[in-house]
From TrEMBL, chain A:
<dbReference type="InterPro" id="IPR009051">
    <property type="entry name" value="Helical_ferredxn"/>
</dbReference>
<keyword id="KW-0479">Metal-binding</keyword>
<dbReference type="InterPro" id="IPR017900">
    <property type="entry name" value="4Fe4S_Fe_S_CS"/>
</dbReference>
<dbReference type="GO" id="GO:0046872">
    <property type="term" value="F:metal ion binding"/>
</dbReference>
<keyword id="KW-0411">Iron-sulfur</keyword>
<protein>
    <submittedName>
        <fullName>4Fe-4S dicluster containing protein</fullName>
    </submittedName>
</protein>
<dbReference type="InterPro" id="IPR017896">
    <property type="entry name" value="4Fe4S_Fe-S-bd"/>
</dbReference>
<dbReference type="GO" id="GO:0051536">
    <property type="term" value="F:iron-sulfur cluster binding"/>
</dbReference>
<feature type="domain" description="4Fe-4S ferredoxin-type">
    <location>
        <begin position="255"/>
        <end position="287"/>
    </location>
</feature>
TrEMBL record, chain B:
<protein>
    <submittedName>
        <fullName>Coenzyme F420-reducing hydrogenase, gamma subunit</fullName>
    </submittedName>
</protein>
<dbReference type="GO" id="GO:0016491">
    <property type="term" value="F:oxidoreductase activity"/>
</dbReference>
<keyword id="KW-0560">Oxidoreductase</keyword>
<dbReference type="InterPro" id="IPR051349">
    <property type="entry name" value="Hydrogenase_assoc-protein"/>
</dbReference>
<dbReference type="GO" id="GO:0051536">
    <property type="term" value="F:iron-sulfur cluster binding"/>
</dbReference>
<dbReference type="InterPro" id="IPR006137">
    <property type="entry name" value="NADH_UbQ_OxRdtase-like_20kDa"/>
</dbReference>
<dbReference type="Pfam" id="PF01058">
    <property type="entry name" value="Oxidored_q6"/>
</dbReference>
<feature type="domain" description="NADH:ubiquinone oxidoreductase-like 20kDa subunit">
    <location>
        <begin position="12"/>
        <end position="149"/>
    </location>
</feature>
<dbReference type="InterPro" id="IPR037024">
    <property type="entry name" value="NiFe_Hase_small_N_sf"/>
</dbReference>
Length: 377, 251
């Protein structure tokens, strides 16, 4: 639902003021920046670190950053780092215990960051992914304290998508390219007729920050240009999920011959689950020190692509690659729905771009759908 | 206090050096462990049995094959260190060649040599409790193993691919972003994905991961410009015999 208030127009240099306003309010800004040839999310000190003039071309198993002349800041998608890295970190301490000189034991809970994050320039699918993590990690009976300590009080500046990548399919998942909810400020980058941003508040905190930035009321033309840019983006999206209920497709495909086919290509490397902004699985381990006086219970990202991940009494239960790929895809598109009442996939395309083998979840879904049609009497 | 012994077979000494390389932790290790046999560090040699033996190197002579059995008998826990001890090392290149021909090409008096035709891992001769992979091993994994044995728990030694660690430390994938060949998807984690962190592909020094897909990795390497010969050489750098099956070699 678009806010009824008149959007504001911010100049190209207004991002510096946004960074200052957020830092003044105690936020640690996390935003896109170019590192090692990719646009990654990282803690940023200034707007000067934003990837001004960089786009990314993606395809299955391929990502290339590309220089552009127009200075666009948010014209990139599907970078390898998502907001998950900050709110659900790759490694975290759940508790620690120390033996004191008098023999007693003292314990401490999870490490909590002394930071409040402001995500700047994440895309609408990333907000949807945060919504999924909110449901999974904080929406149940036992909210995860590591997650809530990082996620509570975050500030989100979403950049609506005007240049989707070839790997994006948010339109199939209903998550983009327009921003509809879950943000404090939404901005739309406009390039034709001068580099500027249309901005609207999505929360009282967002409206307050927006009021602190140099801006003018957006004219009808700017608003229309922003709407048109996002509509063009929607039309430019070239990848799609089959147009049918995906949980039913996954259930019907349990014995599909397609699993053996994808298993011949899949490296079980785990990259897809690691880059996925909603995959939340972890394993825990005890880390002791040499003196035996200090121990930590740590958890780290894990993945259904590892053999040990399905280790139960007596051995792992998902030994074949086919069973592991099927677990990943059935969870993302099917069983997540039963478990959490939503899709586990938001259509960001990261798993497609960052799979070294170029395995494409939309193509696999289409193949399953086609195989089922062949099976039909 | 547990007793620790360090043994060397055919190897370069790099792995046992990792123990001395634990600079910051070395005193703490020395405080918890009685070093009973470690010729690289001390001339003092105590008789067995030993609680923990760390074994470096591969078996390349008949005398070695005898010695490793004696070490096994004298050790409660036996941990092998590195690509040589776990897979025969670079010297296992001889396994698919003629060792007599090699010897005559290298040595003025090959008749002075008394060597086996193959270089084999320790596990081909005796039971091994834990294997620390790598060329050389990772110092963190060594400390983790010693610490775990002190505490009486299982060491945390992952068997999944390097890619897991690569993503956990936010590296940008060199394959996807730069078209560089990388053995990470089929290689066992444990190094912390150092090579990709410095912008180059993994060269597989930790040996194969738990379930490597050799043909799919070969397709990937070919797609990024490697010839069949390049691929064979890449797999044959550090853990020739361990990767033989992954690489599709008969040897
Ligand atoms: S499954 Fe793939 S496309 Fe869907 S949210 Fe995860 S990474 Fe993005
Ligand atoms: S797809 Fe796999 S890694 Fe991702 S949430 Fe599901 S089980 Fe976990
Ligand atoms: S689908 Fe791709 S990224 Fe995922 S485990 Fe298989 S090869 Fe790796
Ligand atoms: S750089 Fe290599 S190890 Fe890292 S994710 Fe890519 S393929 Fe895996």
């Amino acid at each position: 639902m678009r806010s009824e208030e008149t959007p504001r127009l911010i100049g190209a240099d207004g991002l510096g003021a946004l960074f200052t306003a957020l830092r003044d309010r105690g936020y640690t800004v996390v935003g896109p920046t170019l590192r090692d040839g990719a646009v990654v999310l990282a803690e940023l000190d200034s707007a000067g670190q934003l990837p001004s003039g960089w786009s990314a071309d993606t395809e299955a198993g391929r990502y290339r950053s590309r220089r552009r002349e127009d200075g666009a800041v948010f014209a990139h998608c599907a970078g390898p780092v998502s907001a998950k890295t900050f709110v659900h970190p790759p490694r975290a301490r759940l508790w620690s215990a120390d033996r004191n000189p008098d023999g007693s034991v003292s314990a401490a809970g999870p490490d909590a960051p002394a930071k409040r994050f402001a995500f700047v320039g994440v895309h609408p699918c990333d907000i949807a992914a945060l919504g999924v993590l909110d449901r999974v990690l904080a929406g149940g009976e036992h909210p995860d304290p590591v997650y809530t300590a990082r996620r509570d009080g975050t500030f989100v500046v979403v950049a609506e998508c005007t240049e989707p990548a070839a790997t994006c399919f948010c339109t199939s998942m209903g998550t983009g390219p327009a921003a509809t909810a879950g943000f404090d400020i939404a901005i739309t980058e406009l390039l034709d007729g001068g580099h500027r941003f249309l901005a609207r508040g999505g929360s009282p905190a967002g409206t307050e920050v927006l009021a602190a930035l140099p801006s003018v009321p957006a004219g009808a033309e700017d608003t229309a240009a922003a709407t048109a840019a996002v509509e063009r983006a929607a039309a430019a999206i070239s990848r799609h999920m089959p147009d049918e209920p995906l949980p039913a497709l996954m259930t019907a495909s349990r014995e599909s011959p397609r699993w053996a086919d994808v298993a011949s290509r899949c490296l079980t490397c785990g990259n897809c689950t690691m880059v996925c902004p909603t995959c939340f699985c972890t394993s825990t381990e005890d880390v002791t020190d040499l003196t035996g006086q200090h121990t930590e219970h740590q958890r780290h990202w894990d993945s259904c692509f590892s053999l040990d991940f399905s280790y139960l009494h007596g051995g792992p239960v998902r030994t074949s690659t086919a069973s592991r790929y099927r677990q990943w895809m059935s969870h993302k598109l099917g069983t997540w729905q039963e478990q959490f009442g939503m899709s586990g996939c938001v259509g960001c395309g990261r798993c497609i771009a960052w799979c070294p083998a170029g395995i494409d979840i939309t193509e696999e879904a289409a193949a399953l759908a086609a195989a089922r049609l062949e099976d039909a009497p | 206090m547990i007793t620790l012994a360090v043994w060397k077979f055919a190897s370069c000494d790099g792995c046992q050096l990792s123990l001395l390389d634990c600079e910051d932790e070395l005193l703490a290790v020395a405080g918890q462990v009685r070093i009973a046999h470690f010729l690289e560090a001390s001339r003092e040699v105590l008789p067995g049995p030993y609680d923990v033996s760390l074994v470096e190197g591969s078996i390349t002579t008949a005398a070695d094959a005898e010695r490793i059995r004696a070490i096994r008998d004298a050790s409660r826990v036996l941990v092998t260190l590195g690509a040589c001890a776990n897979a025969g090392g670079i010297q296992a290149l001889r396994n698919s060649a003629d060792v007599a021909e090699y010897a005559s090409a290298v040595y003025a008096r090959p008749d002075y040599l008394d060597t086996l035709a193959t270089s084999t891992p320790i596990a081909a001769h005796v039971d091994v409790d834990y294997e620390l992979h790598g060329c050389p091993i990772d110092k963190g994994q060594l400390l983790e193993t010693i610490t775990a044995l002190l505490a009486g728990r299982k060491p945390n030694l992952p068997a999944h691919s390097v890619c897991f660690d690569c993503k956990r430390r936010n590296n940008v994938c060199v394959v996807v972003a730069h078209g560089e060949p990388c053995l990470g998807p089929v290689t066992r984690a444990g190094c912390g994905a150092i090579c990709p962190a410095f912008g180059r592909g993994c060269f597989g020094c930790f040996g194969p991961a738990e379930t490597p897909n050799g043909p799919a990795e070969a397709d990937l390497l070919r797609a990024h410009g490697m010839s069949g010969d390049d691929i064979r050489r890449l797999y044959r750098t550090f853990t020739v015999s361990a990767f033989a099956e992954v690489a599709g070699d008969a040897s």
